[in-house]
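Support reply, case 0932

Customer input (verbatim):
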Amino acid sequence: MRKFLVTILMLFATLFLAACAENGNVQHTAETQEASNQQATQNEMSAPDIEVPATAPELSYNLDKAYELCPDCGMHYVHELLRQPTPPMNIHEMFALWQGVDADFPQEEHEANIAKFVRDFENVYTVTYAQFETSWLGTIILWTDSPLLNFSFVSLDVAGHDWDENGQLVINTQEVLFAVPELLPTDAVVLNVTFAHYLLPHGAIIFTDEDGVQRRMFIHEDMRGGCFPSYRLGLAHELATY
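Our regenerated output:
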């Protein structure tokens, strides 16, 4: 009987201790959760306000602008680069000069425009060359970025052109029309020219660059009209000797 009472008392004590422990864990968990919630609330209140856009801004790009034609001639795109750089030489083209009685561009006005453009150069060389009898002359102005030796303006023997073993066009000098021992960046060359045809270059400049290499640049004539340049320089290439 006594053994039975002891067993009952031990079982009751075990259940009581288990209940107390469970209540303690539940209370601890609740306190921990409440503390976490309070900390999160404090963090949220102390965080700076950041404005988050609801949607990303739309890119405003009009594709039609990329294909907008020149309003003056309608022959090229507005942002199209019409004249490529041709180092070491630079080229500027003036309006063509008609020297006849019914002149569209009076000679006095034309010469005044040239004088205005070259006014900052120390030396200005002027050459007039027409390959056939005409009063229509195109004016181009050349100047260099670096000193050049043995500079010359020449006509080309296009009638006797040939091709070398590499398939390169060979056009020899026909006549030296102008030459100076040295062309400086402070010098300008004004060429008033009329070429016989535009399919092949009829004029060129020849010079020795800073590396001592003799180079040539063709003067090409373009008949596209509109705002496109009428004259342009080809890329400088080493002048081969045969």
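We compared this against your earlier run and they match. Two observations from our side: The first strand starts at residue 89 and ends at 93. The CA atoms of residues 201 and 220 lie 5 Å apart. Please reopen the case if you see a mismatch on your end.
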